Amino acid sequence: MLQEFKDFIAKGNVMDLAVGIIIGAAFTAIVSSLVADLINPIIGLVLGGVDFTSLYVVLSGDVASGIGLDAARETGAAIFAYGAFITACINFLIIAFVVFMLVKAVNNLKAKAEAPQDMVPEVDTGPSELDVLLQIRDSLANK
Questions:
Q1: The total number of structural domains that make up the chain
Q2: Which structural domain, as residue segments, surrounds residue 14?
Q3: For the CA atoms of 116, 117, 119, 120, what is the dihedral angle to 10 degrees?
Q4: Domain assignment present for 128
Q5: pTM to 2 decimals?
Q6: Mean pLDDT in order along the chain per 10 residues (143 residues)
C-alpha cells in the first residue's frame, strides 16, 4: 500500500498538478495586483476619481454615507458590492486571457517539436536516370 502511494505521488501528472497550483496561486497574486494597482485607478480616473473597488449599494441596514466598503461590511448591513464583483470579473478575464495565450504557446511548441526535422523538402532535380534511359530507348526505337 505504501509503495502504491509512492508510485502515485512520483507520477509526472501529480507533480505537474502541484507545480501548476503553486504557480497559479502566485500568478493570481500578480493579476490581483495588476487589477487593483493599475487597471482600477485608470477606471476610477475615467469615472471621476471614484475608487472602483469600493463601489457598493446598501440594501438594508444603517450605514453612514461616504464610508468605505470594509467599514460598511463591518456594520453588518446588507451590502451589494458591485465594484468588488466587477474587479473579480476583470481578474478572471485577465487570467483567462493569459492562460489562453500560454496554452496557445505550448501547443505551438509541441507542434514544432513533433514535426519531423529530418525531412528535406522535395527539390525538382530533373528527370531520373530511369526516365532518361526510357527516353533513349524510345528515341532508338523510332529510328
A1: 1
A2: 2-119
A3: 150
A4: no
A5: 0.56
A6: 78 76 86 82 77 80 79 84 86 84 87 74 78 88 79
